[in-house]
Design a protein that fits this description.
two-stranded antiparallel ribbon; 8 strands; single chain; mainly beta; 88 residues; 0% helix
Length: 88
């Protein structure tokens, strides 16, 4: 997988197209990443001892790694990385 935890990425498709954020988690087997502030969903939290009020929380959901591209910090330009074989 070409994206690692801590990389700055930009979403290239979907409802959050054009948004940028930092990768919080990467799931290589599922080929998914979780990006901070992107792909937010509503989670209904049942009251518990740790969260006595419960309620509706906004959390980030994973999205497919092919739907993001890495943003270089120096140039702020998004580049689509791919695994390439060298002939050496």
């Amino acid at each position: 997988m070409f994206v690692k935890t801590g990389d700055n990425v930009q979403v290239i498709v979907g409802k959050d197209k054009g948004k940028t954020g930092t990768v919080i988690q990467a799931f290589p087997r599922a080929n998914k990443v979780t990006v901070k502030g992107v792909n937010m969903i509503k989670k209904h939290q049942k009251p518990s001892q740790t969260e006595p009020n419960g309620g509706i929380k906004d959390v980030e959901a994973p999205l497919d790694a092919s739907n993001v591209k890495v943003v270089k910090a120096a140039t702020e330009a998004a580049t689509k990385k791919s695994a390439e074989k060298s002939d050496k």
